[in-house]
Design goal:
The protein is an alpha+beta fold. Helix content is about 55%, strand content about 10%. β7 and β8 form a beta hairpin. It is elongated and about 105 Å long.
Length: about 575
């Protein structure tokens, strides 16, 4: 058995990689949502595992790993983790524990930005204690799905055909996706996501006429989360392999499906929207990984290729149908990635299994068994989740208030002004001190000197008495700033003020697509350049700016010219024309 035995080192290393998927999920969900909820999402992903660990030890492990009861429907809780310390199967326990946490955390993204933290914690406890352990027992704990004998006997058409879900496309991902859909449906959309016929925000699905895109705040963090998940998926799919040859096969099929899913999504969105969608392509990588998870050990490279290719298109279609047709708000695409592709991957085992699949043997037996398992798992999950979320809604409450949602859950749930502290307005130290009634002290090591400004000249001593002062404000694309700066420098304009701004002209910005939804970007990034001139003629400044900025296309910018009453140089008190001149 070596390191690949059930108690081997690789088995535990793979389980540790599965635990680290919590970091990947946290980053994906944080990056694909708004900054005002970043701390809340981090807390939920942290608590998923911590709360789940407690209840899995107390109840979940027994329901999953215990002796069969009720015709293979449930394991018998025996608290062996406490009573049989020396002989307990600790490797299998830890392996199932980290998988349980993964199931719970999928829902976090779909219900992000508007769920009460307390309600989410209760959900996490229930799915880890009861929902996941029972359905996982059916296939992985020796229950009724681990053999076809209870249903079909040992001979005939279904002989040697067992339900296939090697690493959890249905038992983990489909369950998480179904839970996400039910939770998001009962919870309702984020405020402002859907608009009625008058263009006003509505939470009523029947009133929805328009769908708004709400982009996430940090695509880089989201992408890093996807890379972490992809890396950890090698442990997710490969941990339970029995030898090095099978491990290598699993790593290859996992990689092929993920790569094909990524490319498939990129091409599909490129054709559909005229540009490849970045966030959706990242979802395509995860879709390929989810879909191949069930069959990674029983399909070949050709099967993995087609599983990933379908998954890449399916995730885009599912995201848009869920959003535009069902009007269920899923900020990160968890329902499509895990629910739709968990379902597809489990069905695909009945088609692409090299030993029992339809395309390789011509037999429908494996496909039928897969469908029976899917229906049973889905029915159990739907019943549990509807009951749980409705109970939460009518007791402790499921949804945060409107003001809490608009201002951010970080502030109201966790007392966190911002997860990005450097972007939080902070009062000056002197303001804080004076507000507390304490006199402001001089900073240590600083000698106070006479800071009285020199008196302004009683009479202006301008070399150009009565010279006109003009302010020129130029708004243009960020990409043209260097050209503009050089052009102004060449005509003698050296004093400029530059500001990064947002704005639009008469065209009202531009339209793009975000996750399949039209995104009207009415405020585009611009550069605002301000100069005040007297010696250099205004007409020369305007002409130089026009020549530097002109392309002949919409968005070249605008130039505004204003009269300036006066200019004072703070250091010397000079005013007017003299205040604008270089003293050298």
């Amino acid at each position: 058995m070596g390191i690949f035995g059930s108690t081997g080192v690789w088995f535990l290393i793979g389980a540790i990689l599965v635990w680290f998927m919590q970091a990947g999920f946290a980053m994906v969900e944080t990056g694909f949502t708004r900054a005002k909820n970043a701390g809340n999402i981090i807390m939920k992903n942290l608590l998923d595992f911590c709360l789940g660990t407690i209840v899995f030890v107390l109840l979940g492990a027994g329901l999953l790993m215990g002796e069969d009861a009720l015709f293979g429907l449930v394991g018998i809780p025996n608290l062996g983790v406490f009573s049989d310390f020396a002989e307990y199967d600790w490797s299998t326990f830890f392996f199932n524990l980290v998988f349980c946490a993964t199931t719970a955390t999928i829902v976090s993204g779909a219900m992000a930005e508007r769920t009460k933290f307390l309600s989410y914690c209760i959900y996490s406890l229930v799915i880890s204690a009861v929902v996941y352990p029972i359905e996982a027992h059916w296939a992985w704990g020796g229950g009724w799905l681990s053999t076809t004998e209870p249903l079909f006997g040992t001979t005939g058409y279904f002989a040697n055909v067992m339900y296939i879900d090697f690493a959890g496309s249905s038992l983990i991902h489909m369950v998480g996706g179904i839970s996400s859909f039910i939770g998001a449906l009962i919870l309702g959309p984020r405020w402002g996501k859907y608009l009625d016929k008058d263009g006003k925000p509505t939470l009523v699905r029947k009133e929805v006429k328009y769908v708004r895109a709400i982009p996430g705040h940090n695509l880089t963090i989201g992408a890093l989360g996807v890379f972490i998940l992809w890396f950890c998926w090698y442990g997710f799919n490969g941990a339970a392999t029995s030898d090095m040859t099978q491990l290598a096969q699993v790593l290859v099929t996992t990689t092929v499906a993920a790569a094909t899913g990524t490319i498939s999504t990129m091409i599909y969105t490129w054709i559909k929207n005229k540009k490849p969608d970045v966030s959706m392509t990242l979802n395509g990588s995860l879709a390929g990984l989810v879909a191949v998870t069930a069959g990674c050990a029983v399909v070949d490279v050709v099967g993995a290729f087609f599983i990933g290719a379908v998954a890449g298109v399916l995730v885009v279609v599912a995201v848009e149908v869920i959003d535009k047709k069902f009007h269920v708000d899923d900020p990160v695409g968890a329902i499509a990635v895990h629910g739709a592709n968990g379902l597809w991957g489990t069905i695909a085992c009945g088609l692409f299994s090299t030993s029992t699949g339809l395309f390789y043997t011509g037999s429908f037996a494996q496909l039928i068994v897969q469908l029976i398992g899917i229906l049973a798992i889905a029915a159990w999950t739907i019943a549990c989740m509807i009951g749980l979320f409705q109970l939460l809604k009518h007791t402790v409450g499921l949804r945060a208030s409107k003001i809490e949602e608009i201002e951010g859950l970080d502030k109201h749930e966790h007392g966190l002004p911002s997860a990005y502290a450097d972007f939080t307005p902070v009062p000056l130290a002197a303001e804080i001190i004076e507000a507390d009634g304490i006199p402001a002290a001089e900073p240590a090591g600083v000698t106070v000197t006479d800071m009285t400004a020199p008196a302004m000249p009683a009479v202006a001593e301008s070399a150009e008495e009565g010279a006109k002062l003009s302010k020129v404000v130029i708004l243009t694309k960020q990409s043209k700033f260097e050209d503009l700066k050089q052009a102004l420098n060449q005509i003698g304009v050296t004093g400029i003020t530059v500001t990064q701004v947002l704005g639009c002209g008469v065209q009202k910005g531009a339209s793009e697509y975000y996750r399949g939804v039209k995104l009207d970007m009415d405020l585009l990034p611009k550069v605002k350049v301000e100069v005040v001139v007297s010696k250099v003629p205004v007409t020369e400044v305007v002409e130089a700016a026009r020549k530097a900025l002109y392309t002949g296309h919409i968005g070249d910018g605008k130039i505004f010219v204003y009269d300036v009453e006066d200019v004072i140089r703070v250091r010397t008190g000079e005013s007017g024309y003299d205040a604008l001149q270089d003293e050298d």
